[in-house]
Structures are given as structure tokens and as C-alpha cells.
Amino acid sequence: xxxxxxxxxxxxxxxxxxxxxxxxxxxxxxxxxxxxxxxxxxxxxxxxxxxxxxxxxxxxxxxxxxxxxxxxxxxxxxxxxxxxxxxxxxxxxxxxxxxxxxxxxxxxxxxxxxxxxxxxxxxxxxxxxxxxxxxxxxxxxxxxxxxxxxxxxxxxxxxxxxxxxxxxxxxxxxxxxxxxxxxxxxxxxxxxxxxxxxxxxxxxxxxxxxxxxxxxxxxxxxxxxxxxxxxxxxxxxxxxxxxxxxxxx
Amino acid sequence: xxxxxxxxxxxxxxxxxxxxxxxxxxxxxxxxxxxxxxxxxxxxxxxxxxxxxxxxxxxxxxxxxxxxxxxxxxxxxxxxxxxxxxxxxxxxxxxxxxxxxxxxxxxxxxxxxxxxxxxxxxxxxxxxxxxxxxxxxxxxxxxxxxxxxxxxxxxxxxxxxxxxxxxxxxxxxxxxxxxxxxxxxxxxxxxxxxxxxxxxxxxxxxxxxxxxxxxxxxxxxxxxxxxxxxxxxxxxxxxxxxxxxxxxxxxxxxxxxxxxx
Lengths: 249, 261
Known about the structure:
The structure holds 2 protein chains of 2 kinds. By secondary structure, chain A is mainly alpha-helical. Chain A has helices at 2-19, 21-26, 29-37, 39-42, 53-70, 74-83, 85-90, 96-125, 131-159, 162-179, 191-197, 201-213, 220-246. Helices cover 37% and strands 26% of the residues of chain B. Chain B contains 9 helices and 10 strands. The interface between A and B is medium-sized, with 24 and 31 residues. Chain B: InterPro entries: AAA+_ATPase (IPR003593), ABC_transporter-like_ATP-bd (IPR003439), ABC_transporter-like_CS (IPR017871), P-loop_NTPase (IPR027417). Chain B: It holds the Pfam family ABC_tran.
């Protein structure tokens, strides 16, 4: 039943996304701008890690795409709440987990698609990385967007007005981006900043993708990255489903 | 007649920053099969909160209730299968076509793809939406939107239909059509209809029995005639006067001073 319902909800929202293809491309714009206008600045700098500057920057941009994109997913649930769509679905016997999963799987699909566009552009700019590493990177994007979108929907159901939601998301996303070393690796950081960044889960993900991009598939970074990504997804989806079950309080 | 909805001391307290708010203090209620029940009360009396509890959207903090024999707390899935709900705001996406909404809704009720398409066509015929199936719901008129909202709620042929202020914002013609529709549902399918409204003429014309809530509890109940006789003084009393007498709210004072504009 959960599978059947998830497929239904997923289909509904995927069709909605396909109707606004422009918005789908637009989401990839910010990381694309970083790639074009920030990426070339790094090519000659010592970044303290193995691999070219592109192998270090592109994993960060992939997560930036997820971080800024998926965290805003909750905006749509605020709109749907006002239209009564969420409650209309919640009075049907449809599985509560499916109401969340269908939506976040759609988001994961959208962001992986945007990630593919970004990597294609990066290849043109000069990125060279093993195919397996690139695919692993997409896997991390999928897990991260699944998690962040779940949390975002949960917040959207709780907050209920876009005026509160926007600032809240910005307050989460900016420090997360800076503290996880998405733009420049934390290996360049002074000790205190490096230590601090270990409290931000995305730090582990970006380190893991950077390892994948240079072909290190069995490193400790990779192990920690996978553990954090899977754990974060489990916690986020559980939180999100709970909110769909009890919302309205 | 068998009771389709029965509530005993149903209550909901919201925890807010300013302290607990008792939105519904303890509602006792019985609705019989095939009855059209008008649920009235001033703004903030707890009508929508009661409705949201009876439709499983909100967990009660006290008391208990059953809908079509299913307990709200222990068998919410059973309640959902037996009832349909039309919220004040409706519940369709303006960017999606009428057909897609109807089919998806039927699929949510676990109909197969083919059955869902057939049911969508049937509902469209029943509610005069056939010519509008491929239109986006955002392009419908108020009356058409309402008919779609109701069609969505009738997808699974529920025993009980909950309508929250169904005619708010409709023109007189659409209101009359909606009243006919509600009566037809009851007469042809035996559907029990539980509706809230602020229009007393609507309650008078449509409801077999009224329940008036005030301050989160039932203040009076009975047929429109009985309530008029008891609280309004005679059968000729208006439901307006009866309502004001029950809720203890005097009619707005007629003020000689000109209204500021």
C-alpha cells in the first residue's frame, strides 16, 4: 500500500514539475553561476587536497544545489496548505508516509536531474573524474535532497506562512554552506573552524564526494559520508512523516 | 434510526504560548442515518475544530466519538473510508485539470486505474462537470469549483459527508443548486450530511435538525421548528432571533449615529 500510494503521490508531483520545465532548469542556475564565475579562480590555487580544483569545487556545488534547492521545498506545502490540498489528501486513507515520500522522491528526481546538468557543464569547464565517482556523487545528492526536503516539508507544515519560512530557511542554509566547506575545503581552515565544521553533517558528505571524484571509494571519509547521509535521511523522513500524521495541532 | 455519528464529551485543547485554549470543551452529539444536520454557532464556537476531529484531521484531547461505527482514535482509517469531507477552502490544485484531480482522488481510495477513470466520469456526470473535465480547476467558477470539491469527497460513496460552510461565497443560483444536490444525495443514496453554515436561511431550508454550539459546547439542539418554539417564543420566530437567544448575543444595537465610512 505504501508503495502504491507513494507512486501515486510521486506521479502527481512529477507531472506538476514537468509542467513547469523552466522552473526546473532555473534551479540549477545559482550553482551554474558559481561554476562559471567562481570556479576559474581556483584553478591555480593550492587547495590542500589531491585532485584538480574542479574535483574539489564540483562536489561542493552539487551539495549547494541540494542545500539551497531542497530546503525551500516546504514553500510548496505552505501554498498547498492554503489551498486545502494537504487536508483533502489527509482525509483519504492514503498512507501518511507516502504523502511525504512521494513528494520528496519527486524533489530528489528534480535535483539529480539538475545535478546532471551541472556536471555536464563542469565537464566542459575542465572537470575530469571517474564515472563511478560521479555516479556516487549523484547518489549523495539524492539522499541529501530526500532528507532536506523532508525536513523542509515538516517545517512548512509547522510554520504555515511564507513570511516566517523564508528567514528560517536562510538562517539554516547560509551557515550550513559556509561551515561545511562546500566552496573551499576545510583542510584550509584554522583548527577551530575545522573542528566546528565537524558538527555540520554536510561536511561529511562533501568530503565523501570529493574522495569519490578522485577515485577513493573505500576511504574513511567515504564510510563516514555514507553513515551520515543514511542516518540523516532516516531521521529526516521519520520526522517528516510524524508531522504529516499529526499536523493541524 | 441508527446513529451514524455519536460523540461523547469530545474535547480539544490547544496549547498556545498564552496558555491552554479550550476550543471544544465537551461536545455530545448524535446524528442519525440519512439525516441532514446543521451545525451552527458563532465564529470561534468550535465548529471547525469539531469537524476536524470528526474527520480525523485533529486528535481529540478528551472524550470519544465514532463515525459509521469506527472509533476516531483507534480506527481513523475506518473513519476515513466511511466519510467524505469538503473543507471551507476546498482542496484542489488550481494548476491541475478536473479529470486528473478526480482520478487521483479515486486512486487514493485504492481504485484501480480503470475503475478510477470510470468513477471520475460517473462523478462528472452526476455533478454536471462533464464538459469541464479537461479544464484546469483554477479556471472554474465558484459554483463549479464547489461541485468539484463535493465530487472529490463523494469519490468512495461515503456514508457520511461533512461540509464546512459549503455555500460561502456562492451566488444565489449556485446556492440553490447546492441545496438540491445535498437533498438529492440524501434521498437517492441515504447519505448522512453534516454541515456547518453561517446562513440561517440555509440551515432552515436544508437541515432536518440543528445543533447550536457556543463556547465549545452544545447550547441547543432540535428541529428548526422546535428550536424556534422553545427559544424564539413561537413557530413564526425567525431562526435569526432563535440563534441569538440561544447564544445569548443580543442583536446588533440599532445606532442612530451615522456609520463612519
